[in-house]
Amino acid sequence: MTMAVQNPEQGQHEFVKQSSLYQEFLAEREEILKHKWIESERLGHDVGFERALLDWIRKHRESWRASRRQNAAQSDDKTSG
Fold first, then answer.
1. What are the C-alpha distances in Å from 33 to residues 10, 18, 25, 42?
2. pLDDT 10s digits, 4-47
3. How far is Cα 80 from Cα 37, in angstroms, rounded to an integer?
């Protein structure tokens, strides 16, 4: 009988990928990339990730996070009630 041995690093990698912190990072990164695309289209040239990141943080991050928290709270209310 053969037993599959899981690599400890692979298990840690899967744990990180499933963590809520990593999921928030991915969602935020996706929003920054959308902002980069929109601003690049608007200005007619690639604005670059760093500029898009800083602009998004200044203009949108606070409201985006508040919206995420509100949506998470509403989802929690629906599942617990």
1. 28, 21, 12, 14
2. 556 767 777 777 778 889 999 999 999 999 999 999 999 999 99
3. 38
Find, among 3, 4, 68, 1, the residue nearest to 31 by Cα: 68
Distance separating alpha carbons of residues 69 and 14, to the nearest angstrom: 25
d(CA 56, CA 40): 13
| Helix (H/G/I), strand (E/B), else coil: 77 | helix
Amino acid at 6: Q
Q: Which runs of E-coded beta strand occur in 1-81?
A: none
